[in-house]
Write a structure and sequence with these properties.
The chain is of the alpha/beta class and about 120 residues long. It is about 35% helix and about 25% strand. The chain is globular, with a radius of gyration of 13 Å.
Length: about 120
Amino acid sequence: MEDAQQRAVLVADDDAALRLLCRVNLELDGYRVLEAETAEEVTRVLDGEDVDVLLLDVHLGADDGLELAKELRTSRPGLGVALFTGSVERRDAWGEIAAGFLAKPFTLDELAQTVRALAPR
C-alpha cells in the first residue's frame, strides 16, 4: 500500500487563506499538497503532476468549478474529486459530478475524512 507521503492533493480555491488552512492540515497528515487559484491553474497542475485528490471550490473565482468537475470526470476518471462551497444550491445533484462534498465552513476532521476516503493510505 502506498504511503500517504506519496499521495498528492490539489486544493483549488480562490481564497488563499482556505488553501493555506487545507495545505497545513493535509501536510500534517502526510499528504503532498498542491494549490490552484483558477481553473486554468488546476489544468496546468494536473497536466504536470500526479494528483490523487482534487478539492475543488464550486465558485472558483470567475470560473465554474462544477463545469470543471464535469470535464475532469470524463478526461481524468481516476481522479478523486470533492467539491466544496458555502452555497446550498443543487447539492443533491453533485453526487453525479464528484465523489465527495465539503460544506463551508467545514471542520478539519471533515477535511481529513474526505481526503482519506478519496486517497486511502
